[in-house]
Write a structure and sequence with these properties.
221 residues; mainly alpha; 13 helices; 74% helix
Length: 221
């Protein structure tokens, strides 16, 4: 990563794949501005799939949803494999829902993508994100139902479990099912997804503690 940063300010031109790897690493470390800078350098002459996705994430997580939408629009979904389609569709839908504040568009987009994918694993992951959308749209009962279906599905991978379990944790807290929150939060954390999903799980636990009157524990959490 340090070599890539030094190369940006020199006359040395790193291969595109090395710049993309560095941009991805910067994103993982939470340095969004550096990730954007590296990804822009990588995609300036060779706008490859991974580079564009990384740039879109860096922009969206900075709150620049319109720019992220433009970058994602450079990817033509028609020729993508199912794995690539999923890798593109998830940030596309999330950006539409949260950054662009277009929940109806995002939900319709998820439904359209679900009709295009064939494997249970992909369908389950899309259902997990749909559950998160339902929770954030103010429908915790529906969100919990969708999330529990995902968690019971044999095809659910770590991504699906992370989305579904964190959604279930916060939905249970909002519905008053406080005794179920910790187990859901722990399952979400065990899936290994940091960032917003970890926040959602913790928010569920804190909400449950506050609403059950355990203020000191909520403060510690």
């Amino acid at each position: 990563l340090r070599v890539a940063v030094l190369a940006l300010d020199s006359d040395v031109h790193l291969p595109t794949d090395e710049l993309v790897s560095a941009a991805t690493e910067a994103l993982r470390l939470g340095d969004l501005e550096l990730s954007e800078r590296l990804a822009r350098a990588a995609t300036a002459t060779h706008p490859d799939f991974t580079g564009l996705l990384t740039l879109a994430y860096a922009l969206a997580w900075q709150g620049r949803g319109r720019e992220a939408d433009t970058v994602l629009g450079q990817i033509e979904p028609a020729g993508l494999t199912e794995d690539q389609l999923m890798a593109w569709a998830l940030p596309q839908a999330a950006n539409q829902f949260w950054m662009l504040s277009e929940p109806e568009r995002a939900t319709a987009f998820l439904k359209a993508i679900r009709q295009r994918v064939a494997t249970p694993r992909a369908q389950t992951t899309l259902d997990a994100l749909a559950a998160t959308f339902a929770m954030n749209a103010g429908a915790p009962q529906r969100a919990l139902g969708l999330a529990l279906e995902v968690l019971a599905a044999p095809a659910a991978d770590d991504t699906a479990v992370g989305w579904a379990a964190s959604t279930a944790a916060l939905s249970c807290a909002r519905l008053g099912a406080f005794d179920r929150v910790d187990a859901m939060a722990e399952r979400a954390l065990a899936a290994g997804h940091p960032g917003l999903l970890r926040f959602t799980s913790g928010f569920g636990q804190t909400t449950a503690l506050l609403m059950s009157g355990r203020l000191d524990q909520a403060t510690d959490t």
